[in-house]
Amino acid sequence: INHGFVVALVYGALWIIQADVAQRNGQGRELERALLQGELLLYLQPQVGEDGRILGAEALLRWQHPQRGMVSPGEFIPLAERSGLMPALGDWVLRTACLRLAAWRLDARTAGLQLAVNVSASQFTQPDFVARVLARVAEAGIDPSMLKLELTESVLADDLDAVVAKMAVLKAHGIGFSLDDFGTGFSSLSYLRRLPLDQLKIDQSFVRNMLASPNDAAIAQTVVALGRTLGLQVIAEGVETDEQRSFLCEMGCEAFQGYLFSRPVPPAEFEAQLHGAWRPLVPLASTPLAGP
Ligand code: C2E
Ligand code: MG
Ligand code: MG
Ligand code: MG
């Protein structure tokens, strides 16, 4: 092998790595700017009960980029994780969600609603996570039970005792917990009874294929049964059709979220929806939204 060629190859590889790191830093800085300059938005997607009543909403991050338009969290959350910005981003989300809840408290139509906030594993494992959440709740002066934190199974990869201890403190203050994307992670069922959860969220991948795939239907059914046995509310995400909704309803699923009811929308639009001044993007099916 030609020595010069190997040297050139190594230098080439180093140059590519360096360029990649520089680009990532650049994107990280751009996201930091977005955070400081108010380019981030929290959209809300309603969560609906068996009777069609709005129980609350999930807060979902959006980045309104000046050139690229609306960037989805699937794109910038991995970037935030790589550049170490996720805890700061998560804190912004919590603060913004708590301020929204403070406004909700003042209106009888919104006062009883819960707002679910996604928490990433890197955010949850921060040593000051519990103190931060409590500080945001106190600053906004809200009832902690209006807030629900959505964790994914990735959080549980960490020291389980530490996870349970953190959850227990927040739970003692009245903050709710939901296990998001349930069924997609690597998890043993034994931890479930150790976690102070309020809700299990059936992942949308099972809901999507449920009517065509008996396996996915069986998983959805099992999650519902498991949740009920453990005394947890079960919510299905990604509900797009009335057939999916009624199938889940028959299984005993109590809450629903998905395009059938509404896409994630700006908070003002969500609130208008509650006040009856807004029509869903996807019209509700003509059949009444009643349980079996
Ligand atoms: P997720 O928490 O599982 O949120 C549900 C995702 O499904 C959202 O995507 C929502 O827009 C989408 N969705 C809702 N209903 C339907 C439906 O009927 N059909 C289909 N096809 N999709 C539906 P989104 O907003 O793009 O968010 C993607 C993921 O990004 C979230 O998944 C969550 O893991 C993460 N994420 C979003 N906001 C935050 C945040 O504030 N903090 C953290 N840590 N993660 C967030
Ligand atoms: Mg979620
Ligand atoms: Mg989810
Ligand atoms: Mg999901």
TrEMBL record:
The keyword Ribonucleoprotein does not apply. It comes from the Bacteria. Keywords: Membrane, Transmembrane, Transmembrane helix. Residues 24-278 form the EAL domain. The chain crosses the membrane at residues 1-17. This is Cyclic diguanylate phosphodiesterase. It comes from Sphaerotilus microaerophilus. The lineage of its organism: Bacteria, Pseudomonadati, Pseudomonadota, Betaproteobacteria, Burkholderiales. The chain holds residues 148 to 439 of 451 of the full protein.
